[in-house]
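Here we describe the complex-level prediction in full. Unlike the single-chain runs in Section 2.1, the two entities below were treated as one system.
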Amino acid sequence: MWHSLHDLWFGFGVAFQPQNLLWSLFGVVVGNLIGVLPGMGALTAISMLLPLTYSLHPIPAILMLAGIFYGGQYGGAIGAILLNLPSHPPHAVTCLDGYPMTRQGKGGTALGITMIASFFAASFGIVVMIFASPLLVRIAFKFGPPEIAAIMLLGLLAGSTLSRGSPIKGVAMTALGLLIGCVGTDVNSGVRRFAFGITELSDKIEIVALAMGLFGVADFLININRLDHVGSKIRMSFRDMQPSRAELKQSMMPILRGTLVGTLFGAMPGTGPTITTFIAYALERKLSKTPERFGHGAIEGVAAPEASTHSKTQIDFIPTMSLGIPGDAVMALLLGALLIHGIQPGPQLITEHADLFWGLVASFWVGNVILVVLNVPLIGVWVRLLSVPFRLMFPAALFFIAIGVYTTNNSLFEIYEVIAFGVLGAVLLMLDFPIAPILLGFVLGPMIEENFRRSLVISHGDLQVFLSRPISLGFVCASALLIAAQLFFGIRAVIRKQRTAQEFLSLPPLHNVPDVE
Amino acid sequence: MRLDWIRKDHLGGALTVLIGALAAGIGRSYDFGSLNDMGAGFFPVTLGVIMMLCGTTIFAVATITPAPNSAAKARMPEWRGWACIIAGLFAFILLGHYGGLVPATVGVVVISALGDRRNNLVQSLLLAAAIVVCCIVVFHWALHVEFPLFAWDA
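The structure predicted for the assembly as a whole is:
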């Protein structure tokens, strides 16, 4: 424990280095800016700015990307509450009560509560991260290839079945992602897989191209001529954002409960942030003495989900960094960024790259403080940004995508990949497939293949190796349980001829939910 | 043409089976190996089979469950928007290769902007001009991206 505090002190030293602080600040500002723009979420922001980090040292690069992430997340809440436009799916739940609050003229209060909730939850998540990471590392050192393959299997299954929509479609998309990860030269045999004689494909599919196609271009293809601009004539100043004492008291417990829900789910690899917010919201409504207020501007309905998603995302960094298992698509992208910078996530990361890990932890806190300080004077600007029409925004975004992809390798070929994945993503979205698992599968694919292969080489082809070691047995059992539960619910749903997800949590139907997870 | 929900899952299932079959088919041309010594084809073939199974299940479930009355109707794509966005990106590649960064920027912005019915040519050109300025300042001067502004002779 003292050791952790000492390391954290060291981390603050790293985070406060002028260069690192500057990039972190830049990330938060740009993330917030892009997150506010309608139709652009944290994922789009990170994929667009990932190429910028190639020339940077890994530490400022990752600090900046993390800053973009939570800046974007906070920015998204502004659009969700004021315009009923969630650009990041977890905010879909925030809309349920946030937008009614805006219509009652209390949008500022909702934003203020969001800010308090996210700051508290993120701080809590950071503290958990500080003390849990070294523990996890101790366990993680016992991980050999079979354990890693087994936990990745669990993570992929959880990621594909516990997100929004049909679990079987999630599994199919994860498999597709794993297949896309196979493209290129196989490291073990040197065989070029799915390259079709194209030289550029004998390397790998470019992760930036995949992410921008799926989460940028596909989104524009779906939204063009459909996303009506909701003009906002809302004016907002910091004074509107201060909640009254009664409102603060009312939202204190929901914030606490939301934070705990997020913490619990953050520890589980593969559970997306959306499901976490759903559960936090459902829990609040269940506990409330006046559940009928929910959906009509209940402040608890804003506080709890926002708190849960922020603590969840902080804690998500633990499995991402120490095991190399991302919780959702955003984490997968950050993991990809680490790999690009030559940093292999895993139990060794915390000891080998102590400056990176503890610097990142410290910068989370610094970044969250910047976020609060920044939003006090800038809230008026963000509100005005909300009125940038989609018709002017997407051509500009397409240009940034094109140049961003170009700069990854200084070649135009990757733009073809963007087009291909954009069209594929849009078609899949139109057919109600979740597309986030594709990215998850893509990032984990090469690692899972490598570890699966190694495990079987160790055991001379005996599959029992996964069952004979206690840790991997645990993960295999959890995976089996997950499949069994999904089958049970799936078959029961088919028998009842209902769609599960919404019934299960008995929530009011969501409007304007973005298709990108 | 409107497709109801059930048709949508039929299409989705079929597409999944198709992708899986293609992957498994191509994957078979690589060495499959054995569990003891996995070849390059092991993963692609396995994944292709998994996708085929998933696709079949999606198709089957769509067949045995009756269509929910109004839920999630399939929409045809927005042809004009799709054509312009895709053409815009292709224009960036072509103009970038033969003309340089500035023509490529104008190309992608103007063509894709025209995909939105509420944009006219003048607005699109103005937007393009603004973005060209931003592009030169940010990417050419500040970040030194290796992409000549004009490259007529290339």
